Amino acid sequence: MSCHLKAITREEHLRFVAARPSVSHLQTPSWGDVKPDWQAESLGWFDEGGDLVGAGLVLLRPLPKLKRTLAYLPEGPVIDWAAADLERWLEPMLAYLKERGAFSVRMGPPVVARRWSAEAVKAAIADPAARRLGDVEATVREPGADGIAERLRRMGWRRAESGGEDGFAAGQPRHVCQVPLAGRSLEDVRGGFNQQWRRNIKKAEKAGVKVVRGEAGDLPAFYELYVETAERDRFVPRPLAYFQRMWTALTAEDPDRMRLYLAHHDGEVLAAATMLTVGTHVWYSYGASTGRRREVQPNNALQWRMMSDAHEGGAAVYDFRGITDTLDEDNHLLGLLRFKVGAGGQAVEYLGEWDYPLNKVLHKALHLYLSRR
């Protein structure tokens, strides 16, 4: 099949997304509005009959003082990754972006490579010989993923170095935790929780924790907890304006694209989180909590409400997003892995992000600069 690629309108892009069961929220037209430092453009792949058969949101970041840009397709593009003629999908994209002044292209194929069940992850954490998830035999190896990676290498693509701590990259996470919901009753989902999770949900219910949906006006309350969480967990917080812009952009595209949940106890907000939905895929996006009154277990109550609402809305998967791939007991991120997998989640490894240098000199200079920051 030969593909013709050209820029498409937001409306065309959104119709394409709406017709599919699962597309990353980072590949919706509205995500470009969340990133004002980047120029966003929707790309479309058309077949010989003129039908739109693929789409991608590309973010273009101009280099200061140079008429060149870095092109980035987070968790995209949305094309037929299993196609034997993958070159016919990607080569037109590279040619188009080169004409647009791109010197380097980064993309994140939405292709799963391996999965580990909750039981397999629990056993791996307990195994002193296992240092990383990759050291442990996967429960499922997705057919075709290795072949896609090899085809990308032959085309000149190279897997991007994460540059992040223990699998948490500056870009999108390669390892995530997902709770399957499709074909399961809510009782089945709750039955998949470990004993600690079930106990904590009961504690929250007995203590009178109430989880409610918030609105845009509740974002400052979320943000106050988020800043406290950033200090406790040692990461740099985004500004409040980022979340306000995210709310405005995503809910304008779809009123249910972004939700805010808050866990109350005795008149105080103890935990809050944002939830994103595209088709049948739901993501837990940003979470925040205070160190006060942790004994009433607001975080478990919050997640259970979000999972329940996702299930009621027909979601096929509840995605906890990024997890560490390290199994080191001394790593502060291991507790987060335990928390997410405790909800019956699978550890899922994607192919990761890939780079293509259209201008090798500028590409190398950029990566040298980033490595020294």
UniProtKB/TrEMBL annotation:
Name of one Pfam family that matches: FemAB
Entry keywords, A to Z: Acyltransferase, Cell shape, Cell wall biogenesis/degradation, Peptidoglycan synthesis, Transferase
Membrane spanning residue stretches: none
InterPro entries: Acyl_CoA_acyltransferase, FEMABX, PG_Glycine_Bridge_Synth
Coiled coil: none
Xref: Gene3D superfamilies: 3.40.630.30
PROSITE patterns: FEMABX
The protein, known as: Peptidoglycan bridge formation glycyltransferase FemA/FemB family protein
Organism of origin: Streptomyces lancefieldiae
